[in-house]
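Quick check before the chapter quiz. The format below is the same one you will see on the exam, so make sure you can read both the input and the output lines.
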Amino acid sequence: MNDTTDENEQSADVADDWAAAMEESGDAAAVTDSDAQAAPMPQLEDDAEAVTNEDANIDVILDIPVTIAMEIGRTTINIRNLLQLNQGSVVELDRLAGEPMDVMVNGTLIAHGEVVVVNDKFGIRLTDVVSAAERLKKLK
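Here is the expected output.
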């Protein structure tokens, strides 16, 4: 016999044991499968509506730290060429000069921007912010 048949027989034996125990205890009104009814289920709301609900209290999540990173570009390189890199080597990226950088929060694209220098420090000026609806689409 296969495992499924053994499991079915064991389930039937357990059901028979329960039925016998119910009869012994005097519970003649044992519940059968035909007496079972479906439990009522509440109507669930769409997650997108929950995100845009202005009544939601976001104070709970305001102090959660996130990692923000600016990505200037990417490239694919084989290990042989990677091992040959040394000081002064130039790695070509997939972006053109002047193209906006990607602003990533925990690995999710949230905006595009351009590099600026303020008080001898680099920064990024956001030029285009990805809408919340677009970010939700990428999560699914």
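If your answer matched, good. The chain has two domains: 3-35, 64-139.
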